[in-house]
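Supplementary Methods. Inverse-folding protocol.

Structures were first reduced to a discrete structure-token string of length 496. This string, shown here, constituted the complete conditioning input.
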């Protein structure tokens, strides 16, 4: 399996929009002297992190694949590449046009093509392997070149026919175009272009075959890989420890507040904390995480997915706020209108598209939503022969919608608490239980979306607990019971 993963890692630049996996290695400033890490240890940790991240992405993302991407033509890198490639192919053409032709660079290209074709073969394909090695024998081609007897077009045709046997059906048109190309230099250039595409196809074929195996063995594989990272870099759990420590402090503060509000409560209960509750509170924080900060190391593989869920919840919160404000103001007049809340949602969703981008103006979007909702309400009232909203009521409605974005807005705070309550209830369910908790009031208009987001969130959390539960158990024991003996990550994972 490691060899197959290595094939996919060749394309790892396309997997990590945040940069190299080395950038994610968890190094932090510490009061204690840092452990000296050698270059080999650093590279070993980086490779383990690359393999872990790649394996996780393949297993959990059914749509994951490698895409062939090139530099934009008008970019500096694209211009440089175009100039260098043109110079290379022009030089090759001038060599082949000499009398007698100079074949040395062409022979090196044939040798490279041979190695690429051999890399496509599956174990046991001995006949075609021997044939490729025999036809593209560079020593023999050099001997033929010395006597000016190289059949360069014949070699190119053999390569094209072999590519046709090995390529995916999607490349059939590319093979036809190669067969229609007469200029040998242009033909060789296009052969390498199609071979690059075939490499991507092979990587995706490998991913497709690996996925079922990884899905069956991913928990053990990720836990083993992270243990190797931890052995290479002992600081690899620092951020995770800090994340759990903050959750413990929040829980202690909550217990303290409850005790102070209940004078008769037993003070000895202040420090009785559920490890599961601590972890669940930590997971809930991820839905409001500032992703400009580094996420805990044990959640790096799901960082993008968690950020997308947070952004989706922010959008759903705005929609729920808009619907609640509108219903509170004009609900009595529109209570009998079928699916009116869904109509309000259909107005809001397009105007909130992309609301998490830096360039998005949320205030402007809320103003536009307010205008359209006032128009929609008035239209609905007029159709039923009821008096429409006057200017003061319209201004009040649009003003309340526009104020959703303000800090400590009561409607926004209420909806946010109810979303948090739903997610907390979801995490409290046993992982094997498929039903959803009751949807809190005010969220019915977004119930379908909330349940979809909730199922994705619970899936991420439950899998993370399975993989990293033993590491979390050691951290919790250290923080909650510092007198207890510590050891390696335990084999049993705490349940929900």
């Amino acid at each position: 399996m490691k060899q197959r993963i290595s094939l996919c890692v060749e394309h790892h630049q396309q997997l990590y929009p945040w940069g190299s996996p080395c950038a994610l290695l968890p190094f932090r400033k510490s009061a204690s002297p840092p452990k000296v890490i050698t270059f080999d240890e650093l590279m070993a940790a980086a490779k383990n992190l690359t393999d872990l991240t790649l394996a996780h992405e393949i297993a959990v993302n059914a749509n994951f694949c490698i895409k062939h991407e090139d530099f934009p033509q008008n970019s500096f890198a694209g211009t440089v590449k175009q100039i260098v490639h043109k110079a290379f192919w022009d030089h090759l053409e001038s060599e082949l046009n000499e009398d007698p032709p100079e074949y040395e660079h062409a022979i090196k290209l044939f040798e490279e093509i041979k190695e690429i074709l051999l890399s496509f073969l599956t174990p046991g394909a001995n006949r075609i392997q021997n044939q490729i090695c025999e036809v593209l024998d560079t020593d023999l081609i050099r001997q033929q070149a010395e006597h000016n007897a190289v059949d360069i077009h014949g070699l190119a045709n053999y390569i094209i026919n072999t590519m046709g046997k090995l390529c995916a059906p999607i490349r059939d048109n590319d093979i036809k175009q190669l067969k229609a190309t007469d200029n040998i230099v242009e033909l060789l250039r296009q052969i390498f272009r199609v071979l690059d595409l075939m490499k991507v196809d092979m990587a995706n074929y490998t991913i497709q075959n690996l996925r079922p195996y990884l899905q069956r063995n991913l928990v053990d594989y990720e836990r083993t890989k992270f243990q190797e990272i931890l052995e290479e870099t002992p600081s690899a759990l620092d951020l995770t420890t800090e994340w759990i420590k903050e959750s413990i402090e929040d829980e202690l503060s909550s217990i303290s507040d409850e005790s102070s509000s209940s004078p008769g409560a037993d003070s000895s209960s202040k420090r009785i904390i559920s490890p599961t509750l601590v972890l669940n509170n930590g997971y809930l924080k991820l839905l409001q995480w500032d992703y400009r900060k580094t996420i805990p190391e044990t959640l790096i593989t799901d960082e993008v997915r968690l950020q997308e869920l947070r952004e989706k919840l922010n959008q759903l919160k705005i929609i729920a706020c808009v619907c609640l404000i509108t219903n509170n103001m004009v609900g009595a007049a529109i209570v009998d209108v079928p699916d009116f809340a869904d109509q309000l949602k259909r107005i809001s969703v397009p105007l909130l598209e992309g609301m998490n981008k830096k360039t998005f103006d949320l205030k402007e979007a809320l103003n536009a939503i307010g205008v359209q909702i006032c128009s929609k309400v008035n239209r609905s009232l007029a159709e039923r022969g009821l008096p429409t909203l006057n200017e003061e009521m319209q201004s009040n409605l649009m003003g309340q919608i526009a104020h959703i974005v303000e800090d400590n807005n009561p409607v926004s705070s209420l909806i946010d608490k109810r979303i948090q309550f739903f997610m907390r209830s979801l995490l409290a369910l046993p992982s094997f239980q498929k039903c959803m908790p009751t949807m809190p009031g005010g969220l019915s208009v977004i119930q379908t979306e909330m349940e979809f987001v909730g199922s994705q969130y619970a899936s991420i959390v439950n899998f993370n607990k399975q993989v990293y539960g033993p590491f979390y158990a050691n951290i919790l024991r250290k923080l909650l019971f510092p007198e207890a003996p510590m050891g390696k990550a335990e084999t049993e994972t705490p349940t929900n």
